[in-house]
Amino acid sequence: MNDKSNNQAEIDHMLFWPPLLAIVLLCALIVLNPEAGNNAVNSVFAVVTGKLGWTYEIFVLANIGLILYFIFGKYAKKRFGDEKPEFSTLTWLGMLFTAGTTGTIFFWATIEFYYFLSGPPFGLEPFSPEAWDWSMAYSLFNWGIGGYGLYVAIGVVFGYFFFVQKKEVFRPSTACETFLGKHASGAAGKVIDIFYMIGVIAGVSTSIGLGTPIISELITKISGIQHTLGLDAAIIVIWTIIFTISVYSGLEKGIAFLSNVRVYLGYGLLIFIILVGPTTFMLNNFFDALGISLNNFMRMSLYTDAHLQTGFPQGWTIFFYAWFMSFALSTGIYLARISKGRTVREFALGATFSGVLSAYLYFAVLGNYSIQIFNDQVIDVTKIFNDFGAQRAVVEIWNTLPLSMIVLPIFVILIFISTANVINSVAYTLAMVSSKELKYGEEPGKLSRIVWAVILGCLSLTLMFLGGLKPLQTSATAGSFPTMIIMGLIFYGFLKGPKQWD
């Protein structure tokens, strides 16, 4: 963000109020009747993942096919504009490398193996040798090309709009002009934008809902303060206050500085764990898991568990696809924005594999360190997980690291900054979409940005109030379904319509 200009666009009330009121009403109903809220959550999750889950799997495979088409097809050598690249190749790859990960990567990379080990796929016996084979392999699959690829193909389309057609695209409806025509700025376009906003809100609320309890558990471990819903609420309030101050006081440079701190601290911490951890085991188990994942790619891609109906693919693969998808449009816009002058092939390869390698690094280090802690019985991960929850188990695993009283505060800083940046960027995006036409030099209204930040916090807190992982999974999956439809429409319009690249 840059507040050099005092010009601020007016709010588009048709885009601002419907999603805002829908989220407020949802939060109110859940708080007033938690039991009904839980029942509704379970029903929605069952419908979206059970009855419609296969559509996510087909869409992701089609998306991978589209990426391959962009890499090897007739557009591969086309460029995003005639200008030279804005960033050097090394800087660009570094930006891509850090673009797709939030603070929740620390949580999943540390504990995801245990979910798959204790509740493995394909009806396998928990904690069996076969379950061990899949425990890391499934993580690499879920965080691989299928998930990160959702940002890439749509990024190519936005890159074409930005740098070839010279369009200022900050709403999905604008990208649908090819086949909607004048209706893109009418009621049909408004509906598309509202569904997009709801999807983004659902996705980021899942991120906040997963990140907040981890910070609370870290604070509890460091200070002894009891972890309660009140502590979670206080953390979200602090995030909102920081964002409010940044909007009115121009602290964007400070936020950018903190973002850089997050990058250096994060990868510095990984290097530290590599040096003090079981390095040989990390490498051996990572490549073993990678081989299993690659060898069974199609089996995992189309796994629906129609006979046993354990819910494994619905609760994991489809959930992760949905979560990635909820961020696909906004992340695709960002990736395209920083890729001026790049060829389509450069972008597709760079954006896909930078994101995947970044995630794999976290899982290779944190995941395998956790597995070694579990195998060596340094702590009773199973008992902690069952008695106190996944977040406590994660913190206790981190506490086994050397210099833990230094390492734990670093984790607090990393996750706090990461989540604050997510709130900041998504609130800004929502404010842009819900503004009237933004002219050059204009910013979305400050009040609008603050309102969206508060709404994100309130929904996250409401989902945590319901308790457990299921409400967060439901938020991501339900919110992403209309996003999948919107992405399909954008791809259809791009591929069918006449292009300057043709």
From TrEMBL:
It is found in: Cell membrane. Keywords: Cell membrane, Membrane, Transmembrane, Transmembrane helix, Transport. One of its GO terms (cellular component) is plasma membrane. It is a multi-pass membrane protein. The chain crosses the membrane at residues 14-32, 52-72, 92-117, 137-163, 194-216, 228-251, 263-283, 318-335, 347-365, 406-430, 450-469, 475-495. GO terms for molecular function: transmembrane transporter activity. This is Choline/carnitine/betaine transport. It comes from Desulfosporosinus meridiei (strain ATCC BAA-275 / DSM 13257 / KCTC 12902 / NCIMB 13706 / S10).
